[in-house]
Design brief:
The longest helix is centred in the middle third of the chain and has 32 residues, at 141-172. Helices cover 50% and strands 17% of the residues. By secondary structure, it is an alpha/beta fold. Helix 1 (20-32) links the parallel strand 1 and strand 2 (36-40). Helix 4 (88-100) packs across helix 6 and helix 9 packs across helix 10 (265-280). The strands form two sheets. Strands 2-1-3-4-5 form a five-stranded parallel β-sheet, sandwiched between helices. It has a five-stranded mixed β-sheet with strand order 7-8-6-9-10, sandwiched between helices.
Length: 338
């Protein structure tokens, strides 16, 4: 059977104008060019339509009742900012790469403002509030088509580059063997969440866990089996700790780290015991272990209310001490630093 690829959906244009004649004119012209058109009669309605359709371009009249185009343009930029990445470091890296490609300044949905020909002050104001470009009344249709085509092509190019770049950045923060976050991503995430918990005055917890007698496991079963063991353990940790709850990272060798924002010692201890039980339940045979016939984990738990004058390293140090105590007291268990 021959597979037929589905055509891509046409770009969507949002037309915001209180003049019905202008809206109908722009609809006919844009649909003839192959675009999908959605409409709004004022800025307030335009924001609602924008949220539903996420258009590739907004054609926005400057002067309208209820909410004018200048105010609407400001709000549109805020809505675009809400879709930006959570990580400040990823955002900075993306912006650097975009600038290198000459795509800076096109990250937001482009806005083409409609102004009056005899009102240069409106043009200045439109650009000041973030409009990408403008056209004047009476509208010259050939100019309109050219500017719409250019803005949409530029925005689509940005989206393609952004998607590819984000995928590269995502892969750069993953551990190649286990697929969980790598040490670089752990450090970034811990710093980000430390600052966020300071602002929110909330607790931040860290679990450090180590596969018991992993060197003996490698010596007994070989490095390939050791890699398979690491992958199975990582999958179990990732399954237990949902992305919306925290981050699972390979801290180094056979050691993993779990960062849990907005989590107290009690909550983190419950997670640690669940992780310990889950890995033991995998029943990965470990004949060289001194504590079980299967692979087990030792875990250290620490929780703090981050403060501006305290570095995240303090949380890591306390979790590491708790892990040491878990190993010293018999392994296959967790110890929470109180």
């Amino acid at each position: 059977m021959k597979l037929v690829s589905l055509p891509e959906a046409p770009p969507t244009i949002l037309v915001v104008d209180d003049d019905q004649f202008i809206r109908e004119l722009l609809r006919r012209v844009m649909e003839k060019e192959g675009y999908k058109v959605v409409e709004a009669t004022n800025g307030e309605q335009g924001l609602d339509v924008y949220k539903r359709h996420k258009p590739h371009l907004v054609i926005l009249d400057a002067l309208m009742p209820v909410m004018d185009g200048f105010t609407c343009c400001k709000h549109l930029h805020k809505l675009s900012d809400e879709a930006s990445p959570d990580s400040e470091n990823l955002e900075e890296n993306l912006e650097e790469n975009l600038q290198a490609q000459g795509l800076q300044g096109v990250s937001k949905t482009p806005v083409l403002m409609i102004t009056n020909l005899d009102d240069p002050a409106s043009v200045d104001r439109a650009l000041a509030v973030g409009a990408t470009d403008y056209i004047t009344k009476p509208i010259h249709l050939a100019v309109l088509r050219q500017r719409v085509r250019r803005l949409i092509q530029q925005f689509q190019l940005y989206q393609q580059f952004e998607q590819a770049n984000r995928e590269c950045l995502r892969l750069a923060t993953l551990d190649g063997l286990t697929g969980v976050a790598n040490r670089r991503r752990f450090d970034e995430y811990l710093d980000d969440e430390w600052r966020r918990m300071i602002r929110e005055e909330s607790p931040l917890s860290l679990i450090l866990c180590n596969i018991d007698f992993f060197k003996k496991y490698n010596d007994t079963y070989g490095h390939q089996a050791g890699e398979n063991c690491l992958q199975q353990v990582a999958d179990a940790l990732r399954f237990c700790v949902k992305r919306s709850v925290g981050l699972v990272a390979r801290y180094g060798g056979e050691e993993f780290a779990i960062v849990l924002p907005n989590t107290t010692t009690i909550g983190a201890s419950l997670v640690a015991e669940e992780l310990r039980s889950l890995v033991h339940g995998l029943k990965i045979t470990h004949a060289a272990s001194a504590v079980s016939e299967y692979v087990t984990l030792s875990l250290g738990v620490a929780s703090l209310y981050p403060e501006p004058d305290t570095p995240p390293a303090k949380l890591v140090a306390e979790a590491d001490m708790a892990l040491y105590q878990a190993k010293a007291s018999g392994r296959n268990r967790y110890v929470a630093k109180v």
